[in-house]
Specification:
five-stranded mixed sheet, about 35% helix, globular
Length: about 425
């Protein structure tokens, strides 16, 4: 373990920002020794993800003067990670990313105190997230980012006049990369646009025609989708497909390989199976480095006030040269997460409950997976536990009118994609 005392001038560059005022400082900023102590001894940062972007973030955050850092990641190290996730070595393959990354940075960076959490973000409760000064996300999943955004928005409290209690805000800096492109967002829950406010701006995922997958596959991707979309539900109907489970990916790979051999298609590999099944786009190390640097800088600015933070979105494009630009997303007053009122749901009372569920999964405002629905009086549909799912299954074929749903009524919807319930206002056509 390296001792800070053994490195003269260790934080000289950081001190220039914290000990003196500058032209870009926020209103009321006063550089002082106390600010240094606050940053190093009282600020606690949560880094979400310890993969390609997460490794960069842990390194940058530790070298920016943050001491108390927690990292959470549910994944283990695969040999394919070693070409860009530089905190890992071949001997670490199979070990939890969060534990190995934390241990590496703690040994390498003077004063760093990184606490690992080897679990899903959904395994932690609101009190856990409430304990952090700021959250920095390096996730590769829109669903996980939606969940984290919903959790932090749910922590915000309001006073009797409806004003946000500032002390309950946990800011989020969200970074994401996709090949040569990347983005950084600074989110103050209930103060500026949250992640959910702009969910409709994300492009739809590439899907292959079902007829091609089932009858005339031509590409290795067609074979993988065949195994995932058709064979898994048919041969393993009682098992939920977990794309983070190596055994499940291996099963898809084996079935896809057999399908490919049947149609003389080459190119099906385990790595490609992972990529197609999880919609993974190959990562570029330089993009991760650039986005991580911006995320860490924004976290430093949010906490210290030494400079004004990003308002509130930055895009990086390295496809042809290097180009970046910033713009500000506006809050969506009808946002299902941070909006002040219930989201409007236009429907017909003649719809069956199954039609309503289908509409909720197709509507880009909600983008839900398998929602449960209830009124103030009774439960219409429950996905879990199995006993409740079975008891409410018969409601799917009944109309909303038959179930007692009325115009102007509020429905409460829950789904694994969001950490808290969504309130919908029924507007009957």
């Amino acid at each position: 373990m390296v001792d800070e005392a053994d490195i003269p001038g260790r934080w000289a560059d950081i001190d220039k920002a914290l000990l003196r005022n500058g032209p870009l400082a926020t209103d009321g900023f006063e550089g002082c020794e106390e600010l240094k102590g606050f940053l190093r001894d009282h600020v606690t940062v949560l880094c979400v993800g310890a993969g390609g972007l997460g490794c960069e973030l842990l390194k940058d955050l530790a070298l920016s003067g943050f001491r108390s850092i927690h990292v959470i990641d549910m994944d283990t190290i695969d040999v394919s990670n070693l070409n860009r996730q530089f905190l890992f070595r071949h001997a670490d393959v199979g070990k939890p990313k969060a534990l190995v990354a934390a241990e590496f940075v703690n040994k390498r960076v003077a004063g760093a105190n990184i606490t690992p959490h080897y679990c899903k973000i959904q395994d932690k409760d609101a009190d856990f997230y409430r304990g952090f000064t700021i959250v920095v996300c390096g996730l590769d999943s829109v669903a996980a980012r939606r969940w984290m955004n919903g959790m932090l928005c749910g922590l915000v409290e309001h006073d009797e006049q409806g004003n946000v209690r500032q002390e309950t805000i946990v800011p989020m800096v969200d970074g994401g990369t996709e090949g040569f492109k990347g983005q950084v967002r600074v989110i103050y829950p209930h103060m500026n646009a949250c992640f959910e406010c702009t969910i409709s701006t994300f492009p739809p995922q590439v899907n292959f025609p079902m007829c091609t997958i089932a009858s005339t596959p031509r590409l290795p991707e067609h074979c993988i989708e065949y195994a995932k979309v058709l064979l898994w539900p048919e041969q393993r109907p009682d098992d939920s497909l977990d794309l983070d489970n190596p055994a499940h990916i291996q099963w898809l790979f084996d079935k896809a390989s057999a399908r490919a051999a049947e149609f003389n298609i080459t190119g099906v590999t385990y790595r490609l199976t992972q990529g197609v099944a999880k919609h993974i786009i190959p990562a570029i190390a330089s993009t991760n480095a650039a986005i991580s640097a911006q995320c860490s800088m924004e976290a430093f600015k949010v906490v210290s006030g030494a400079w004004g933070c990003l308002k509130n979105n930055m895009l990086l494009n390295q496809t042809s040269g290097v180009y970046s630009y910033t713009f500000e997303y506006e809050r969506d007053p009808d946002c299902i997460v941070c909006g002040a009122k219930a989201a409007r749901l236009d429907c017909s009372l003649g719809w069956t409950l199954a039609r309503l569920v289908e509409a909720l999964t197709e509507d880009k405002r909600f983008d839900l997976g398998n929602p449960s629905v209830r009124t103030a009086e009774k439960t219409l549909r429950m996905v879990k536990p199995p006993s409740l799912e079975e008891s409410t299954r018969k409601n799917l074929q009944l109309t909303l009118a038959a179930l007692g749903v009325q115009h102007g009524e509020h429905l409460t919807v829950t789904d694994e994609a969001v950490p808290r319930a969504i309130t919908l206002l029924v507007v009957a056509r």
